[in-house]
Design a protein that fits this description.
The chain is an alpha+beta fold and 368 residues long. It has seven helices and 22 strands. The chain binds zinc ion (2 copies).
């Protein structure tokens, strides 16, 4: 019989075409085989059988069991992989994978949904009440990304002959309001002109279930609706998990500024995050009994240990470590979801590899 899986992680690094697997199994192996190009089967003494889905197909080898190393309570393997068409984007060094990635529910996706014949409704994620029909949106635009706004700010206030230095990023953002019938797509929210909204109260509450969908907008005529309070419905409904905003922001920063270290702050809690790699294919438990595959993940090291964070910070400020440390600021819903997703990721990884020094190891994928 096939059992629920023990903690395991299979990681595919596309740039070096390497697939490595670690499985928390102390028992002696009876057999090890590939049931398909991307499924590894193991039977241990006593007859228990496990099946692990891999994030990338591997090359068939005749003596698979020879690839298995016993590493304490872990079985580890490194397996050769064939190069797929989808890997080529990573092998082309001139291609910035992170910059060309399209975030979920960005203005391109909404524009596509608006132009297809099947209507997309924006509904309350809590009760399903319809709030907006995308086909009624007259102008649909993306807000400049936060990075873009910061670069504009930088460019603006460092121009040598610039007299007026008072415009802050916030003020610039504040200047963006949707035109009548319009919708502006922000990183984690929609700014929607009130004239096309239905069933939404003055304080951005759902008139069906009273749940809070957002807040007042940048002008009297619009509301700021949080993506995670909404669902897109075109026969199937799709939701937006809050951590996705954090994932997009991290990918943006790594892609644009090549920062790798981040402090995420919320009131009293702090998280130090090190983005160790990106574009990684992973399968691991991720809170599921048999595990799931996540493509295009960030490999993330993190800690919430305040002493370690302070030590790391002071080393940075003394110039002992040369890399930039960027401070990120997320709404609390995003922070809470991010921490939960990181913890679930860590707990599905075998004991021996879920820590790296004082860092916890986790993966952030697009569909956790
Ligand atoms: Zn400046
Ligand atoms: Zn509702």
């Amino acid at each position: 019989m096939t059992l629920e899986n023990p903690p395991f992680v299979a990681e595919f690094l596309p740039r070096i075409q390497r697939l490595s697997v670690s499985i928390q199994l102390a028992e002696e192996l009876e057999s090890c085989s590939l049931s398909s190009a991307d499924e590894l089967q193991m039977t241990v003494k006593g007859g228990a059988r496990y099946a692990f889905t891999l994030p990338h197909p591997v090359v068939e080898v005749s003596n698979l069991v020879d690839f298995v190393q016993n590493d304490g309570f872990c079985k580890t393997l490194k397996l050769p992989t064939p190069i797929l068409q989808s890997d080529r984007v990573y092998l082309d060094k001139s291609n910035n994978v992170l910059m060309t990635k399209e975030p979920k529910w960005d203005h391109n996706e909404l524009a596509r949904r608006r132009s297809t014949r099947s209507n997309t409704l924006v509904r309350c994620a809590n009760c399903g009440l319809s709030l907006l029909n995308l086909s009624q949106v007259t102008t649909l635009r993306g807000m400049p990304s936060e990075i873009w706004a910061e670069m504009m700010e930088y460019w603006h206030c460092h121009k040598p002959d610039e007299g007026n230095k008072t415009n802050s990023t916030v003020e610039r953002y504040g200047n963006f309001t949707p035109s009548p019938g319009g919708l502006l797509v922000g990183p984690y929210y929609f700014l929607v002109d009130k004239s096309i909204l239905h069933n939404v109260g003055e304080d951005a509450e759902c008139l069906g279930c009273d749940s809070v969908l957002g807040e007042t907008g940048t002008s009297q005529n619009c509301l700021k609706m949080n993506k995670w309070s909404l669902e897109l419905y075109d026969g199937n409904s799709e939701t937006f998990q809050p951590y996705l905003h954090a994932l997009n922001s991290l990918e943006n920063s790594v892609g644009c500024t090549s920062s790798r270290y981040f402090i995420v702050e919320l009131e009293k809690s702090k998280l130090l995050v090190w983005v160790f790699g990106y574009g990684i294919g992973v399968s691991s438990l991720f809170g599921h009994g048999k595990g799931v595959v996540q493509q295009n993940c960030l490999k993330v090291f993190y800690t919430d240990d305040e002493a370690q964070i302070e030590k790391f910070r002071s080393e940075k400020s003394q110039g002992l470590a040369s890399r930039e440390l960027e401070v990120l600021d997320f709404p609390s819903v995003v922070m809470v979801d991010l921490i939960e997703k990181l913890r679930i990721g860590t707990s599905g990884i075998p004991d021996g590899v879920r820590k790296f020094g004082f860092w916890n190891v986790s993966y952030l994928g697009p569909d956790l």
